[in-house]
Amino acid sequence: MGLLYARTNMLIREFSNCDINVKLCLFRAYCTQFYGCSTWKRFKITVMRRFEAACVKCIKSFFGFERRYSVTKMLCDLGLPTFNTVIHNARVRLYDSVDIHNNELVKHVFYIW
Questions:
Q1: Which of 10, 77, 80, 89 would you label with 108, given CA atoms 20 to 30 Å apart?
Q2: Residues 6+ apart with CB under 8 A from 106
Q3: How many other CB atoms sit within 10 Å of the CB of residue 27?
Q4: What is the mean pLDDT of residues 74-89?
Q5: Measured between alpha carbons, how far is 31 from 9 in angstroms, rounded to an integer?
Q6: Number of neighbouring beta carbons within 10 Å of residue 23
Q7: Angle formed by the axes of helices 2-15 and 45-63, nearest 10°
Q8: Distance between CA 44 and CA 24 in Å, rounded?
Q9: Residue 96 CA to chain centroid, in angstroms?
Q10: 81-86 contacts: CB < 8 A, separation 24 or more?
Q11: Is there a contact between 59 and 11 (Cβ–Cβ < 8 Å)?
Q12: 113 pLDDT more than 70
C-alpha cells in the first residue's frame, strides 16, 4: 500500500495540471498494475479491503474528487475498473496461461498450489 501512495503522490506532484486523458493514462500505467496480484488469493479479506480502500483514496486524490463522492460514479466517470475487477482479470489471465502451457509439471504444481 505504501508504494501505491508513493506513486500517486509522485503523479500528483508532477502531473496535477495535465489533461484528464493524460492523467488516466498515467494512473493506469503506474497505479493499477499490481505485480503478482493473480496469486493474492491467500491474503485475508481485511488486507484486501484495506488495499481496495487505498486504491479509492488514491484515485480520489489524484483526480480531485471529494472525499464523500460516490466511488461507483467516480469509476464510471473515469472509465476505470474496480479493484476487484483488476484482481479478477489478472487471475483469469494467469489461469488461461497455465491452461495452455505445454509443460505438465507446471500445470500440476499450479493446481496443487
A1: 89
A2: 98
A3: 20
A4: 94
A5: 11
A6: 19
A7: 10
A8: 30
A9: 19
A10: 81/32, 83/51, 83/52, 83/55, 83/56, 84/52, 86/32, 86/34, 86/37
A11: no
A12: no
Q: In this predicted model, what pLDDT tens digit does every residue of 21-75 receive, in sequence order?
A: 999 999 999 998 888 877 777 788 899 999 999 999 999 999 999 999 999 999 9
Grid coordinates representing 102 are 505445454
Whole-structure pTM value: 0.83
3-state secondary structure of 42: helix
What's the grid cell of residue 96? 488461461
Cα separation of the two ends of the chain: 25
Count of positions (residues) in the chain: 113
Here the cell at position 88 is: 479478477
